[in-house]
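Appendix B, record 7
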Amino acid sequence: MTIEVFLEHFKKLNNNTNESTSPGESPQPQTLNLENCDLDYLFTEDEVSKGLHSLKNGKASGIDLIVNEFIKHCPQEMVV
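Structure tokens (predicted):
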């Protein structure tokens, strides 16, 4: 695979946006696959925020070396 093919693939993925929403507005959930319809809904900022704040303290970081406490206490703009 050439680098041009690789780049073109990710450009296409990146350009696949939902233009029906205005900036700052969350897109409405949509079903992507009928087989796993419960799993294929887009998640909201509130769901991400709740998930991040439910992380346990005192756990080891992952390969990115970011500990849960940092994620839980950083500004919301950094994680959503």
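Remarks on this record: Helices lie at 3-14, 45-53, 68-73. Residues 26-80 form one domain.
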